[in-house]
TrEMBL record:
This is UDP-N-acetylmuramoylalanine--D-glutamate ligase. The keyword Flavoprotein does not apply. Belongs to the MurCDEF family. Residues 118-298 form the Mur ligase central domain. HAMAP family: MurD. Cell wall formation. Catalyzes the addition of glutamate to the nucleotide precursor UDP-N-acetylmuramoyl-L-alanine (UMA). ATP binds at residues 120-126. Pathway: Cell wall biogenesis; peptidoglycan biosynthesis. Residues 321-434 form the Mur ligase C-terminal domain. It comes from Sphingobacterium tenebrionis. It is an enzyme of class 6 (ligase). It catalyses: UDP-N-acetyl-alpha-D-muramoyl-L-alanine + D-glutamate + ATP = UDP-N-acetyl-alpha-D-muramoyl-L-alanyl-D-glutamate + ADP + phosphate + H(+). Coiled coil: none annotated.
Length: 457
């Protein structure tokens, strides 16, 4: 029994994959193994890794173009989440009535593994990795996929897992119709990627709530009761699943909450109650209590032992470039949060520290509204150092809220300035709030340059 209850899509014929990245090549290999005539088409240059994989598998492909005649004859199309609906080719294929689905939707047809699916505007990578860590430590044969790790389709094709933890973005959800999550998690919903949703928040919220479509009475829906957008949308997007909320604003009889003694309590019907002091969690900060609440609820649904949960939630090491501790030099802590590419992520980062902060931020501004950072900047940030070409809006936003705002000429320059402004006990935090591609290849490159500059102080 797969996670798509019936077969809604062709099971043979021509399978066209648009996009030759991790998900696309994985889907191509699964399609080949299932007997499809597979063709992969990518408008860009295919990286060497994926080129080699396609060649080794003997899968037909093209790069640098989409040849219409080789695509419009498809019986089924799997598209990369990065290709927007507005793309002319997608519009044409939709007009022809061609089924266009995501890699996750395609692969779910071919597995009866349990699917633990996590989405949210912020924290989903950390929560996905934490959940995977806890379940693995608990002895489950579990795979990690979606927005992270190896392709879900490739793992379904070539590995056998009893369950998967999937990080799922709104772009993936947009092309998922019959897929069913055994456990669906929505961490939070804040404005992001609105250009893909006609600048309408309700469209973005609806996309996130596709996570709970098709859930049944035996499934679980885990969500944050403190997140206004999520709670407001519950009535509009009902599900048959069992609701498990988590909160830091009071006590619950079912779900996860923090009590007056700072204990995280996890209560799931017909399961042993779990308690752990939040100061024992390896990930600190209010937002990470939310992340642990969600991961803990997934683990408790799976009936993991309390001791196993405590050990794994106390030993987890976070993902690179997300609030990553780089070094302590002269009593100053240097933190790499390069993955914070939106304002909300920076809010979470600032909220994590009780020290004074020298904040390095900037890059390609995606139309950011910095208003939500104002109070935290006023109370915690002693200086802002701008990186990237577009610094004007940061100056405008914060000139009345912090004593020092300066521009830098490079990442190493920014780190040098920060080291002079910070004193013992302070935190130097790279948390850009912006995309990276003006000075850097991507957020990883930005984070690596920061770490390199810190190590050269």
């Amino acid at each position: 029994m797969s996670n798509i209850a019936h077969t809604y899509y062709p099971q043979s014929g021509r399978l066209v994959i648009l996009g030759a990245g991790e998900s696309g090549v994985g889907a191509a290999i699964l399609g080949k193994d299932k007997g499809f005539d597979v063709f992969v088409s990518d408008m860009g240059t295919i990286s060497e890794k994926y080129l080699n994989m396609l060649q080794e598998e003997g899968i037909a492909f093209e790069s640098g173009q989409h040849t219409e005649d080789l695509i419009v004859n498809a019986d089924l199309i799997v598209k990369s989440p990065g290709i927007p609906e507005k793309a002319p080719l997608i519009k044409q294929l939709r007009g022809m009535g061609k089924p266009i689905i995501s890699e996750i939707e395609f692969a779910a047809q071919y597995t009866d593994a349990k699917l633990f699916c996590i989405t949210g505007s912020n924290g989903k990578t950390t929560t996905t990795l934490l959940t995977y860590h806890v379940l693995k430590q608990g002895g489950l044969n579990v795979g990690l996929a979606g927005n992270i790790g190896n392709s879900f389709a490739l793992q379904v094709a070539r590995e056998q897992h009893d369950s998967y933890v999937l990080e799922i973005s709104s772009f993936m959800l947009d092309d998922m119709y019959h897929f069913r999550a055994d456990v669906a998690v929505i961490l939070n919903i804040t404005p992001d990627h609105l250009d893909r949703y006609d600048y309408k928040m309700e469209n973005y919220v609806a996309s996130k709530f596709r996570m709970v479509q098709n859930q049944r009475a035996e499934d679980y829906f885990i969500y944050c009761q403190d997140d206004a957008e999520t709670v407001a949308a519950l009535d509009k997007h009902p599900t048959a699943a069992q609701y498990l909320p988590f909160t830091q604003e009071g006590e619950l009889s079912i779900g996860a909450f923090v009590d007056a003694d700072k204990n995280l309590n996890i209560l799931v019907p017909n399961r042993e109650a779990f308690t752990m002091n939040i100061e024992e969690l390896s990930l600190q900060g209010r937002h990470n209590v939310y992340n642990n609440s969600a991961a803990g609820l997934v683990a408790k649904v799976q009936e993991l032992r309390n001791q196993t949960m405590k050990e794994s939630m106390g030993s987890f090491v976070n993902v690179e470039h997300r609030l990553e501790h780089v070094a302590c030099i002269g009593g100053v802590n240097y933190i790499n949060d390069s993955k914070a590419t939106n304002v909300n992520s920076v809010w979470y980062a600032l909220e994590s520290f009780s020290t004074e902060i020298v904040l390095i931020m900037g890059g390609v501004d995606k139309g950011n509204d910095y208003e939500m950072l104002r109070d935290l900047v006023k109370s915690k940030v002693k200086a802002i150092i701008c990186i990237g070409k577009d610094t004007g809006r940061i100056h405008e936003a914060f000139e009345d809220d912090t004593d020092v705002i300066v521009n830098s000429a490079s990442m190493s320059d920014a780190v040098q300035i920060a080291s002079h402004l910070a004193k013992k006990g302070d935190t130097v935090l790279l948390s850009p709030a912006c995309a990276s591609f003006d000075w850097f290849k991507n957020y990883e490159d930005r984070g690596e340059q920061f770490k390199d500059a810190v190590m050269h102080l």
